[in-house]
Amino acid sequence: MNDTTLRTLEARIREQVASYCETDEVPGFVAGVHHAGAEIVVAHGTANTATGAPMLADTGFLFGSVTKVMTTTLVLQQVERGLLDLDAPVVEYLPEFAVTVPGAADKILVRHLLSHTNGIDADLFFPDAQGRDALAAYVEGLASSCGVLFEPGEQVSYSNGGMILAGRLLEVVTGLPFPELLERDIYAPVGMRNSSTSAAQAILRSTAVGHFNDLETNAATPTGMFTLPDTWGPAGGTPIGTVADLLAFGRTHLRAGVSPSGARVLSAESTALMQQVAFDMGSPNVPPIGMGWVLYPFGDTTVLAMSGASPGGVSLLCVVPEHDLVFAAFGNTPGAIMLQDQLLQCLMSEHLGISIPPLITESAAEVDLTPYVGTYRCEQLRVDVSIVDGQLEERVTYEPTDESQERIFTAFAGGMTAAPPQRYIAIRPGLFAPADYPLATFDGYLRLLLVSYHDIRDGRAHFHNAGGRLTKRA
What we know:
It is a single chain. By secondary structure, this protein is an alpha+beta fold. The chain has two domains: 1-357, 3-Layer(aba) Sandwich (Beta-lactamase), CATH 3.40.710; 370-473, Lipocalin. 27% of the residues lie in helices and 24% in strands. The strands form four sheets. Strands 12-13-14-15-16-17-18-19 form an eight-stranded antiparallel barrel. A seven-stranded antiparallel beta sheet has the order 3-2-1-11-10-9-8, sandwiched between helices. Helix 2 packs across helix 6 (178-190). The longest helix has 22 residues, at 3-24. The N and C termini lie far apart (54 Å). The mean pLDDT is 95.
């Protein structure tokens, strides 16, 4: 990429970021692109409206679920060293691992944790434990609090619990706490010099905080909770770093496991394994899953991606191996995911010249809605689906099991325990789009806004999938 192309790209991103942040009340945003040996970082706005601290190119932020790709990398390192076997049952390493369904944990293999095919119903399980024994406390809590949604290997449902279990596996086989392992085997060899594993470390340098937009005024207010408990570290609750550090990690996966400094972080074979399809639901709203990575098809081009929600913020890391490109971004309101999607699509179509065909071309005129009506549940979440004015309407309600769970979740969600009712139009049997959205909205990362229904038998759908997460008919 020559200097003129680089400067043009930087100016385009800067203009797009400034316009979106001003219109949609996003206080601060930072984005970086590495392409063909050149790199740019654009920072805009405010990192923390309470202090007025600016968002800078080297401002840190919570990685959120982007950490899951790092956790997966750590697991495969231990597989290469002979300490873990992807096809071994998790209980072989963690005999104490159990769920509320007798015998269900025994069937879950290590690879099921990394490919989100484990079926563990623990996506909103937030044990409030801190310190060295936090992950052990998480595993202990699963036995009395969480069941399963499906048999391992049969479906995909985005799994925080699976990644946290993987983090505990790493602690057991290496003898190191997860944060120390992350620093030693990812941050150091990759060259992530400005990354940390705790708020106590991050406070010593420039760090952004999340914000939530007021439902009436849309004004952004700083979050009251910076990180999730330590129990969520391997799933993304606590690691913090910069856009440049994420770009370096993405480049490591772009270069078959070799970091920008030349250090071998992961073998070429393991890096390729992470990028292969482990499971495909065959539904437009659920991209094929690899190990750690989600494999987004943009026409004939595959984008390795993972986004990461944190309290009032959202990060994104994308790697495009076919075009030698890495894209990373963070915005400090949840709505910044819309800007990240716009930037990604512009990079693909305008910068790389990739044709992105429409994912959805038209809605369906006549679809029988009755198979989808009913109540669907997962751990602490209820989805009520009804027919209103010829459309499906969903009401999503959080139902905490105790005061601690309610306190953590509501802080993470900005105080909301129930989403406003959402209407959906039929795209085809089993696939629906939120009403009043242009169909082009779903061409990129935001295809996750589509909702699908699965396992239709006896005239009823038995699973509901939204955002890659399954709920099961009650």
